[in-house]
Specification:
Number of strands: 17
Distance between the termini: 61 Å
Strand content: 5-15%
Helix content: 25-40%
Number of helices: 15
Structural class: alpha/beta
CATH superfamily: Alkaline Phosphatase, subunit A
């Protein structure tokens, strides 16, 4: 967005006479200048960056050891949120992010890959971003913004449910939840395919040197340059697939972390927790959730097992490092065209770190997984398929319980960095106020001066549930609005409700007790001490709140089929 400066190269005769008359009697003609007509300020640009399956403490601003100078800079210039909550998995989070609505109202009551016969025909379980809600790019485009998206969509696989059909004018997207980061398009599991779309149309082939994080960034910079001529503000959604499995990174970036994780996941889990304590993000007395029973102690692993596991985390770190470098390219370009200061920038993860194994994907086969070369030398390079695994995921989410897929804190607590346009009141501050992903869209509409819509393109839409937290992001307020921390969860029949410091969780055995559990997050962030028997009245009140949440949002609450 260039601001073209208009210069006066000379005066026509009538203009000169008028100016001389106005200046008559003044001591010096030098002090007399024509008055410029005030121009309305251009609305701020908005850059929303989402990492895929990034752990809470992976990046530098949250005490992580991975090199992230661009995100370090962003944290120093804005606000760092220590109590930001999302959904347990990617597409439900993204449905809330782009609608300001509960995932059941937005069509992702479950992920599209997990729609069951009981859910068929129910808008809240469509498996794509439904048309009962207004999508953020639809509203911002009506408000006069350029709207760009590069990266992972995961909110609809058909042309009519693609991002180009939901308000983005320029798109290059992966429709599915993940897959190879190289040009070979190897999916997460055999039933899936990797489909890329450019402005709604399927892409036939990828460049030979394709690597996801770089290519998405290239496309976005191309559109920025393309849109500079009309001086319109932009909304850009840069939706990286890093560091989602399979873990892939350029070889030289993996080499940077050689030996970095040889101390193992038990040590890293404690180191990450110590870092969070030092930053004041968790209580000083917090202890980490114990290593899961299916994860071996590091010193019980064989030499070969340790080498392979260390390499997996080295590749993961390399992915995050490389992503940060791409983010730095975007920041550099915005500074070069003098738009950085007028751009609101948000960086977040869509859920907790991924501790699941590739065998968990629907339709996965041993034959498919055996077709990859996961030798030590090829791990993380083309033709490999590796993952973070539960040991490293627990370390990334320390001190929290579990990780991605669960409504415990390890699944739903995520990093969020925000830099507002202009000068924030208190740059570099850590804010501990509860913020939920449903509040992002209303906040961005507030930034753009756009009202919450009643209708989009002639179709009526549901009233938004989230509220703006712009004053908090700008450092003008220390707390969110009243009721910001009152939020319910249901996904895969796992349930939770948060109200202030109180939280209830329901998960079937052996993941949980099969009953509602009650926790006080203010002094038990790891959800280790179930207070349901000690605080029965509080438990009843919280369960009543969840039941009201279920009613208000059309939650099916299907009883899970637990294998005997």
């Amino acid at each position: 967005m260039h601001r073209r400066e208009r210069t006066l190269k000379g005066f026509a005769a009538p203009s000169a006479i008028v100016l001389l008359a106005l200046c008559a009697g003044l001591a010096s003609m030098a002090s007399c200048k024509p008055t410029a007509t005030p121009q309305p300020a251009k609305p701020p640009n908005i850059l929303l960056i989402v990492a895929d399956d990034l752990g809470f403490s992976d990046i530098g601003p949250y005490g992580g050891e991975i090199s992230t100078p661009a995100l370090d800079q962003l944290a120093n210039e804005g606000v760092l949120l220590s109590n930001f909550h999302v959904l347990p998995t990617c597409s439900p989070t993204r449905s809330v992010l782009l609608s300001g609505m509960d995932n059941h109202r937005a069509g992702l009551g479950t992920m599209g890959e997990f729609v069951t016969p009981e859910m068929e025909g129910i808008p809240g379980y469509a498996g794509y971003l439904n048309f009962e809600v207004a999508a953020l790019p639809e509203v911002l485009r009506q408000a006069g913004y350029h709207t760009y998206m590069a990266g992972k969509w995961h909110l609809g696989s058909e042309e009519e449910t693609s991002p180009h059909a939901r308000g983005f004018e320029e798109t290059f997207v992966l429709l599915q939840g993940g897959g190879s980061h190289w040009n070979d398009r190897k999916p997460l599991c055999p039933p899936e395919t990797m489909v890329y779309r450019r402005n709604g149309k399927e892409v036939d082939s990828l460049p030979q040197d394709f690597y996801s994080s770089r290519y998405y960034t290239d496309r976005l910079l191309e559109w920025f340059e393309q849109g500079r001529s009309d001086d319109k503000p932009f909304f850009a959604y840069l939706s990286y697939t890093a560091p989602h499995d399979p873990l892939h990174a350029p070889k030289e970036y993996i080499a940077k972390y050689n030996g970095k994780y040889d101390q193992g996941w038990d040590s890293l889990r404690q180191t990450r927790l110590d870092g969070l304590k030092k930053l004041g993000m968790v209580p000083s007395a917090a202890v980490p959730f114990p290593r899961l029973p299916n994860v071996k102690a590091w010193d019980e692993l064989s030499t070969e097992e340790r080498a392979l596991a260390s390499r997996d985390m080295e590749v993961y770190a390399a992915m995050v490092d490389y992503m940060d470098e791409q983010i730095a390219r975007v920041f550099g370009y915005l500074k070069e065209i003098d738009e950085y200061d007028n751009t609101m920038i948000l960086f977040m993860s869509d859920n907790g770190a991924n501790g699941s194994l590739p065998t968990a994907y629907p339709g996965q086969t041993e034959e498919y997984l055996d077709s990859f070369d996961n030798s030590l030398d090829n791990r993380g390079l083309p033709g490999s398929y590796i993952e973070m695994g539960p040991g490293w995921a627990q370390a990334s989410m320390s001190p929290s319980r579990m990780f991605k897929a669960y409504p415990t804190e390890g699944g739903i607590k995520a990093p969020l960095l925000v830099k507002v346009a202009g000068k924030p009141a208190q740059p570099g501050m850590v804010n501990q106020s509860f913020v939920h992903v449903r509040d992002i869209m209303p906040t961005l509409l507030d930034v753009a001066g756009a009202a919450k819509p009643d209708a989009i393109d002639g179709r009526e839409v549901l009233p938004m549930q989230g509220q703006s937290v712009l004053d908090l992001f700008a450092g003008k307020s220390e707390k969110s609005y009243a009721g910001a921390s009152r939020v319910g969860y249901e996904l895969f029949s796992f349930k939770a409700f948060i109200d202030g410091n109180w939280k209830i969780v329901w998960m079937p055995k052996p993941l949980g007790t099969g009953e509602w559990e009650l926790f006080d997050l203010s002094n038990d962030p790891a959800e280790l001490h179930d207070l349901s028997n000690e605080q029965p009245e509080t438990l009843r009140e919280m369960v009543a709140l969840w039941n009201q949440y279920k009613k208000d949002n059309g939650v099916l609450d299907i009883v899970p089929r637990v294998p005997k």
